[in-house]
Amino acid sequence: MTKRILLYIIMAFYSLYTYSQGFKVKEFKLNINATTAYNAPVDSEGHPCGLIKIRTSNPDLQFKGDIIGEVENKMNEYWVYLPHNSQQLKILHPNFMPLIVSFSEYGIEISSKATYILTLEEVKYKKEKTGVTIVVKPEDSELYIDDCLIDNLNSSGLYQLFLPKGEHACKLSKEGYQPYAQIIQTGKAPQLISVELESVMAELEVKSKTSTAEIYIDGELKGNGLWKGNLLAGSHMIEARQEKFEPQTVKITLEEKDSKILSIPELKRLKRKLKIVTSIPQLPVLLDGVYAGVSPCEVVTETGEHYVSCNAFGCLPYRKNIVVDSGTSNPITVNLQFDSHSVFAEYYPKAYSGDLESMEVLAANRMLKTWHSGAENIEEAVFWRERIEELEPHYFTSLSNLKFAEEWLWTYENLAEEYEEKGDYPKAIHCYRKFLNIFSNEWSPDEYSEYKNPQSYKKEISDKINNLEELQKR
């Protein structure tokens, strides 16, 4: 960098003893007979542009203005397309001051599909000029000399200018920095001016509790999980994003030279509506072990891995791992399988299809088991005894149900003995008679371990009924 600056100073010193160069407009006119612009590109409003043919032998020109499309570099001629009613064109060269051509000064109005000829010529100024080298930081700062913007064509932060002797207003500006202004007094000797603008930008540190989240500042990706840098004063939108998660957006206002730390909470997974359907309807369904509803049901859950479980009377336990993502739309179907090894296997499908007899068989069996397991709880036992009394007449409607008789025999014998001990003789008699009614059917005694001698057992129960009836009469 230092060598380059010295080179510019030498060039500036040498220029004191030569003529300074530049451009001027030799001629600017409308080409009436030209049809080149008939195929001109259109502007943002759909209107065809006008064409300016800039004639010069210099190959190093650049142009700024309301230019449409690319500038075409023909042989000794540049073609520049401009929208109608354009006002000016700036012509740039690395070694010359910019030339601003105002169309109105030449009586030119840019019209659609019209062609214009702008002829330039290089000139040597006899007036002696001074070389001025200006080094600026940041390199992309805007430099104005006498309110004329000096284009930094190479973006190096180095400007080498040839200025007439006298005073010149020098201004530097860049968004986020303190503007700079000074008066340059040029004379015989070349000058080197170095300017570093003072930053007034705010410092911001953004931390996301989701370390893998992408951090966006005003829609621009800055990093993952953590970002620290400078921002212009004003309002900014800070966003943390991650696939399959709900984004977190925070609006923050910064003052000049502020210093702040912003913490973004843990991102939450996106939520999707999930529909669960079971092959047997109206069953309680669990999602991740938590009650989700009665099928068919809908539940809102986070994306990611989950499991669905369901238990139904007479069916094998069901559990299935699922993945819920942003595209999940089809319902989850729970296909339950009946327990083929159960002694009641033939009744389950019939009961779920609405067969009344199968439903009664299964319901009675469940009630008996529930009463047995909860017999120590008096209130619960009373409840199930009443239910058993209601179901029993339907339970033994055919011989096909007799294979469940032993549970009923056990139930009524125990009920009768309990009522007898409490002195409730009518209920005791009733239960013993139920017992005899079941026991009087034609079963093989070998099937029932507790009732190996049916005839003597029947007589024993009959005697108990007679004794209780005698006691009831007293």
Written description of the protein model:
- This protein is an alpha+beta fold.
- Helices cover 23% and strands 38% of the residues.
- Strands 1-8-2-5-4 form a 5-stranded mixed β-sheet, with no helix packed on it. A 4-stranded antiparallel β-sheet has the order 11-10-13-14, with no helix packed on it.
- α6 (425-439) runs antiparallel to α7.
- The longest helix has 20 residues, at 454-473.
Provide tags for this entry.
7 helices; alpha+beta; four-stranded antiparallel β-sheet; 474 residues; single chain; five-stranded mixed β-sheet
Mean pLDDT: 80
> Tell me, what's the shape?
rod-shaped
Radius of gyration, in Å, reads 49 Å
Q: Widest sheet: strand order?
A: 1-8-2-5-4
What can be said about this structure in brief?
The protein is 23% helix and 38% strand. It has 474 residues and is an alpha+beta fold. The strands form 8 sheets. Strands 1-8-2-5-4 form a 5-stranded mixed beta sheet, with no helix packed on it.
What are the SSEs and their pairings?
Layout: H1 2-14, E1 20-31, E2 50-55, E3 62-64, E4 72-74, E5 77-82, E6 88-93, E7 96-102, E8 115-125, E9 129-137, E10 142-145, E11 148-150, E12 158-164, E13 166-173, E14 180-186, E15 191-196, E16 202-208, E17 214-217, E18 220-224, E19 226-231, E20 234-241, E21 248-254, E22 259-264, E23 271-278, E24 284-287, E25 290-294, E26 297-302, E27 304-310, E28 318-324, E29 332-334, H2 347-352, H3 356-373, H4 378-395, H5 405-422, H6 425-439, H7 454-473
Parallel strand pairs: 2-8, 9-15, 16-22, 23-29
Antiparallel strand pairs: 1-8, 2-5, 3-6, 4-5, 6-7, 9-12, 10-11, 10-13, 13-14, 16-19, 17-18, 17-20, 20-21, 23-26, 24-25, 24-27, 27-28
Helix pairs in contact: 3-4, 5-6, 6-7
